[in-house]
TrEMBL record:
Protein name: Leucine-rich repeat-containing protein 4
Pfam hit, one: LRR_8
Ranges for domain LRRNT: 52-87
Record's GO cellular component terms: plasma membrane
Protein's organism: Holothuria leucospilota
SUPFAM superfamilies associated with the record: L domain-like (SSF52058)
SMART domains: LRR_TYP (SM00369), LRRNT (SM00013)
Entry keywords, A to Z: Leucine-rich repeat, Repeat, Signal
């Protein structure tokens, strides 16, 4: 029995050698190298990305990749959210705190919905790696304060929703690095007596607040 290399092709970006298995009777059988089986197991087998998609709905849409974990009785963000996700919905759960590195792997994130949870604390660097973020919804939580550098790296943000919290103050520079901000909502049930005078100094494109 002899194994003869025939051609080299690419499948899903993987270089794969096609080989012919030749036996004495002249029968030819095509088979692929173990690289293919490794890839198939990685793509369709039990990997970490399955953990999030078993609890949530994962699907491709015309703007990218969406993970919908809304109303799943979650007390923490599920492990294994695909790093290519562009829209993540974690609304209507029981999240209480957002740690500094929570969304570090999700660098393509454009829309993040954290509304209607029980969030009382957000770490300063929570969104530091989500530089493509355009919409952030943290409305209907239990926030009383916001870290001053919370949105320092989120220059592309256009919509920020903080309504229906218990905010006592907002840092004056929280929107300073978001020049294209068009919509901010801090209405309903917040405990704000007044806004800092320089809060919207750099937000020339703001339409509604």
């Amino acid at each position: 029995m002899e194994i003869v290399p025939v051609t080299t092709k690419r499948y899903f970006g993987l270089k794969v050698c096609e080989r012919l298995l030749l036996n004495k009777g002249g029968m030819k059988m095509l088979f692929f190298s173990a690289e293919v089986f490794f890839f198939l197991n990685l793509a369709f087998g039990n990997n970490r990305n399955d953990e999030a998609c078993r609890k949530c709905s994962c699907f491709t849409y015309y703007h990218g990749y969406s993970v919908n974990c809304s109303n799943r009785w979650l007390h923490s963000v599920p492990d294994g959210i695909p790093p290519n996700v562009t829209k993540l919905n974690l609304s209507r759960n029981y999240l209480s705190a957002l740690s500094e590195d929570l969304f570090m792997r999700l660098r393509n994130l454009v829309v993040l919905d954290l509304s209607v949870n029980s969030i009382t604390n957000i770490s300063k660097g929570c969104f530091a790696y989500n530089v493509r973020l355009k919409k952030l919804d943290i409305s209907e939580n239990q926030l009383t304060d916001l870290p001053s550098g919370l949105l320092f790296n989120n220059h592309d943000l256009k919509t920020i929703l903080f309504k229906k919290n218990s905010l006592r103050n907002i840092p004056e520079t929280i929107f300073a690095n978001i020049p294209n901000l068009t919509h901010v909502d801090i209405s309903h049930d917040n405990c704000l007596q007044e806004l800092p005078p320089g809060l919207l100094f750099n937000n020339h494109y703001l339409i509604t607040m």
